[in-house]
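Listing S7. Sequence submitted for prediction.
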Amino acid sequence: MSAHHHNEDIQSLYEGDQSKLYSGIMNHHTDINSQESKKQIKRIWAVTGLLSIVTIAEVAIGLGAYYAGVHNNLIITIFLILTLVKAAYIVKVFMHLGDERKNFVFAVLMPLSLFIWFIIAFLADGSFWLHMNKTQADTKKVEQVSH
C-alpha cells in the first residue's frame, strides 16, 4: 500500500474511510464550556432571534393588514421581501456563503436567480395561454349562439 493511506491528515480522511470525518475525530468543540463553544452558541441564539423577529413581524403585518383592509398586492410584496431577507440570511449563515469569496457566492446565486426567473416566466406564459384559450372559447360560444 502507498504511504498516504496510513497518513491521518485531512486529505487521507477524504480519500479513505469517510466515517472518521463524522465520528468525532474531526470534532473541534470537545469542551462545551470552551470559549469557542460559547461563541458558537451565542451566534446560534442571535440567528434564532433575528429570524424569529422577522417571522413575528410577518405575522403582525399580515394580521394588521387583514383587519385594516390593505390591498393584497402590497401585502404580497411585503411578504416577498421579508421572505427573501430570511432566505438570504439562512443561506449566508447556515450554508456558510457569508464566509465565502464573492465570486463563489455569485456563482451560487446567479443560477438560483435564473431558476426563479424561469419559474416566473413559465407561470406568466401559462397564465397567458389559459387566458387566450378562455377568450377563444368564449368567442366560439358567442358565435354559436348568434347563428
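Caption to Listing S7: primary sequence and predicted C-alpha cells for the chain studied. Helices lie at 10-15, 19-22, 35-68, 72-94, 102-146. The CA atoms of residues 4 and 38 lie 36 Å apart.
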